[in-house]
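Reviewers asked in the last cycle whether our approach scales beyond single polypeptides. To address this, we selected a multi-component target totalling 503 residues and predicted its structure end to end. The input consisted of the following lines:
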Amino acid sequence: MFENIGEIVVLFWRTLRALPFAWRQRRKIFEQFFEIGNASLLMVCILSFFIGAVTALQTGPVLVERSMSSAVGGIVGIAMAKELAPVIMAILIAGRIGSAMAAEIGSMRVYQEIDALRTMNINPIHYLVLPRLVAIAIALPMLVVFAILVGWFGGAVVAEANNHIAIPFQAFFSDLRDIVEVKDVANGVFKSFCFALIIGSVSCHQGLATIGGPRGIGRSVTKAVVNSIVLIVIFDYVLTRVLLK
Amino acid sequence: MMNDLANNRSGVGLQVRGLHKSFDGQEVLKGVDLEVMPGEIFVIMGPSGSGKSVLLKHLIGLEAPDAGEILINGELIQPDEIAGKYRMAMVFQSGALLNSLTVGENVGLYLAEHRLKSSEEIEEIVMKNLEAVGLKDAANKMPSELSGGMKKRVAIARALVVEPQLILYDEPTSELDPLSAIVIGEEILELKHRTRVTSLIVSHDRDLAFGVADRIAFINEGRIVTVGTPDELKHSGDPLVQKFLHADFKHEPQTQSL
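The resulting structure, written as structure tokens, was:
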């Protein structure tokens, strides 16, 4: 994986330089954006509800037992906003969208469609990579905001419904508001933006680097997902450390 | 730049000097030299694996040579400059149509992406070129709905839209029945007479080569063995060329004794 880091950075830099052409590719950006939202929204909703719920379930009884029930809302709020929603949604998107990006570009590479673009003097980075990277960089942070809200809701539902916690809905959100600040949500959204750039760059690079036939496409898809997840986890630590200051 | 290109409609002359290319230590092109005249139909024939398609990819800038030169109209050109400096088109062996676009969008892709025409003009040009290859009704179909021969004709229509100065065909009749192969051959000739484009065809289809070529080069193991008109090639003294030209399938049934 790490031998490809240089190539991924070069691809990312070339895509950044192509940003002035993004408006020309707006139709494709919108198509990709719709694809990402359409493919992921329901899954994001289910996943984040239960992550919020299980966080409340794990922490609630312990804290209530120690007369710290007012901390449950804050813990679920902070955990969802700063860590769980950005990281788990990024992993979900790497699996659903990163794999699709690598497969689509990979098959275009194998079946000479990218060569055909180049013979028409159409830059594959402008035509294929730029729309995908811009779309995922907008879509993932939006999905994460949605996931944070649904996760909080999931935590609040369990906190009220579970007999060992039994914190009323309003009290949960009141405690959450006391602890969670706008900058905590912004922190998570910024992390998800960085993760989106990682997923887009790694997956598009893997697609463009595909060699061989259908087996090569399969290998690229696997590598795109695995490499994205590894980099997400590593960058999660780095970004958390930097944003702590 | 694009306007200069658009105004220049004449076919280009092409020279290749000492082209070498290796992949993973295996030398595929071992010093290829050839010259193609403007407006000529030049066919490169040879057995499978002789380096024909690799040579073609060098000529359109998809591969960079390890050594050697490519000159267009006498001017030395780098591989990454080719597509930007000259209007070239390649008809790939598989057609290489973009599967996510309709046939019409594929044909109009060059004009749409370079914003050379309005969408109404593009539609008109697309229909005109699809009509030229007999596929006017296929504009809204997806490539997956087309047969192999239709895909190749769409690929030719896509190449025509570029109004190329040099058009490269990679095995244009492979996987086609003889009747479809004749249609493709006629398209190639018709295009030459209509636009004076320089055409370079890589093929091992003897009927196509002798039917359309002004000159034929025979390539074997990465080297050009001989170049000449179809008549000259037929009378070539090279045993390999003669063997290739006259190879025929003969099955001798085994006699079984009772």
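Residues 3 and 166 of chain A are 52 Å apart (CA to CA). We regard this as preliminary and will revisit it once experimental data from Aim 1 are available.
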